[in-house]
Amino acid sequence: MSVFIKRMVGKGAQVAARIAIACTSGSSSKGVSCEDSEDRVLAKYGYSKKPLWGHLPSLQSSSLDVSIVVPCYNAEHYLPKLLDTALNQHTRYSYEVIAVDDGSNDGTLSLLNSYASRFPNLVVYHQNNGGISMARNKGIELAKGEYVGFADQDDYLSLDFVEVLLCNAKLHDADMTQCGYVRIKQQGRSYEVKTPDCVLGINDLDGRCKYISGLMWRSLYRKSCFERVRFPEHFYYEDMLNRMVFMRILKKVIIISDLLYYYCDHDDQTSKRQAGRVTDIRKLDQYWLAKSFIEYTTNDLGYDINDAQYRQLLHEWGTLLWRRTRGLDKKCRKAIFRLASSYLCGLNYRCANLTSLESIQEQSLIQRNYIAWELISFSSIALS
Length: 384
Fold this sequence. Notes:
Largest sheet: 10 strands, mixed
Structural class: alpha/beta
Strand content: 15-25%
CATH class of the largest domain: Alpha Beta
CATH superfamily of the largest domain: Spore Coat Polysaccharide Biosynthesis Protein SpsA, Chain A
Distance between the termini: 14 Å
Radius of gyration: 21 Å
CATH architecture of the largest domain: Alpha-Beta Complex
């Protein structure tokens, strides 16, 4: 489908969503009935509610400037390029690379030990297979850097990744610095992804919505940001942590346009397509994580919901929920849509600065208009 046709179809779907909203305008939104309580609905479709994480170990004191955490699983063919770039950074700062072998059954651990014998700043930790979040959390626990960054095992870094990101973090006393990246497709095709240089204070809500990415691997974070949060374990879509929690609580974020990270697609990669291959009921992690992060941020961390977080929730339960639950039974999708609708209404929060698409997403959820929700979610993808 050509770009022109795709955009025309997207605009048509947006118009249809507006009409669907108008047809139900003025009707009262109903909450989920006792018979359709969250526990009952999730249990009916075999989804088990889980806590975000267990006990949070204390963080190490900081004796280095940066720790780069690399979860590794059956990655012996790709790791050398990442390790060669991560361990040979051109920087004045002290740093370490923490490679967490997550129960690999190939030569990954042997390769890591070989590199560790030559590079004293490489820390290798082996654990039983527990998934990328558990591996990242172990890296955070071991980190001795003031700032922590993450890299996927089959990507690689610019040789000034640490220097440029940390220099900006220290210059602005930032909690997070985020860079641009190059996506390298198969057969060597590539394209650049970058945003304008900017400094985002805690009240720069529009900028946070526009520029803070859900991609954890192109940033450095002040390690203390993880004092009371970690990656959610045994869930898909774990990078929602960045969008739903850090977007809200970080005091200062620096966005730089420098292309410092290289994100690589491979036929047999495991780290990038895992979520895209979800075909079971765990797709409902998209609903449960968004709700759990909102509640943890407000109830446990003490932050009231704000416009940026609310707009992100609309995105999580609009386009992303629609896209990620495709393939599930339609009755299940409708039931989860109603749960999201009921929860959104119960927040009693409204944002006056929504985009046109966000406004329709909000109205579709508030009015429990499933058809409008499907149309506007499709439109959002078609017009992106």
